[in-house]
């Protein structure tokens, strides 16, 4: 069969669709032009530590100055809002893993500098009960793909969630921090000892999970923790 005809037939049977609205689009794009305008990509001036959007004349946000996080830096690709919520929920809860590689590629391309001198990639872990219910850890899927793109070591079991906490959604920052107390434990400190670690999550809200996990990693001998997420609330 003519290769051109084969390609056209393949495109017809397996068309490329927008990762947000699933409208058929050109194969060279991941988002349709309409969704690309709606998604709030975090390219504006942000805090040099936690990544929250701040005025141009400020370098570090007040929260990071008054209560510095244990991680060195936190970056996200886009805002978690009404336009991106459907993408995240489908990925997180409804087994829609078709675009996982696209999401990981976006995370990598938008934050390549974070991977410089880093050595280990670790996903935020789920407790075994929640993992059983959900069937997969979306942060681990992103982290595994990021390790392929960056050629860094992927260590999914370096840190465990040893306490089955209540869902963080809807909790205040204070309650989130209390909920996560002693929730994580390093399974093998030799894996991260004296290393720069990239901690991966799908969505960052208050940053309480990233703080708690990062602190445990540092307490176990890591040199530095950098947090990378697909989305964050702003």
Describe the structure.
This protein has 234 residues and is of the alpha/beta class. The chain has one domain: 3-Layer(aba) Sandwich (Rossmann fold). Helix content is 35%, strand content 16%. The protein has nine helices and seven strands, in the order αααβααβααββαββαβ. The chain has helices at residues 3-13, 33-38, 62-66, 85-93, 100-110, 128-134, 138-150, 173-179, 208-219, and strands at residues 73-79, 120-123, 153-154, 159-161, 184-186, 196-204, 224-232. A five-stranded parallel sheet has the order 1-7-6-2-3, sandwiched between helices. Strand 6 (196-204), helix 9 and strand 7 (224-232) form a beta-alpha-beta unit. Helix 5 (100-110) crosses helix 7 (138-150). It is globular. The termini are far apart. Mean pLDDT is 83; it is low at 1-14.
- The shape, in one word, is globular
| Structural class based on helices, strands and sheet pairing | alpha/beta
Number of strands: 7
Just give the CATH class: Alpha Beta
List keywords for this structure.
globular; two-stranded antiparallel sheet; 9 helices; 7 strands; 234 residues; disordered N terminus; Rossmann fold; five-stranded parallel sheet; single chain; alpha/beta
């Amino acid at each position: 069969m003519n290769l051109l005809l084969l390609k056209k037939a393949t495109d017809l049977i397996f068309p490329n669709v927008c990762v947000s609205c699933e409208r058929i689009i050109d194969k060279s794009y991941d988002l349709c032009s309409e969704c690309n305008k709606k998604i709030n990509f975090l390219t504006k001036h942000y805090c040099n530590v936690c990544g929250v959007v701040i005025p141009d004349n400020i370098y570090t946000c007040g929260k990071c100055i008054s209560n510095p996080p244990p991680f060195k830096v936190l970056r996200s690709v886009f805002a978690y809002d009404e336009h991106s919520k459907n993408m995240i929920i489908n990925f997180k809860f409804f087994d829609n893993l078709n675009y996982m590689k696209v999401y990981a590629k976006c995370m990598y391309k938008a934050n390549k500098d974070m991977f410089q001198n880093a050595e280990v990639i670790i996903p935020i872990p789920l407790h075994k009960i929640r993992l059983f219910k959900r069937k997969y850890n979306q942060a681990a899927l992103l982290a595994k793909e990021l390790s392929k793109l960056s050629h860094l070591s992927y260590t999914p079991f370096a840190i465990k969630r040893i306490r089955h906490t209540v869902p963080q959604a809807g909790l205040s920052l204070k309650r989130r921090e209390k909920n996560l107390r002693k929730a994580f434990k390093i399974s093998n400190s030799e894996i991260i000892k004296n290393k720069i670690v990239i901690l991966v999550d799908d969505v960052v809200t208050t940053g309480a999970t990233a703080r708690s996990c990062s602190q445990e990693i540092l307490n176990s001998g890591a040199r530095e923790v950098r947090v990378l997420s697909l989305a964050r609330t702003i």
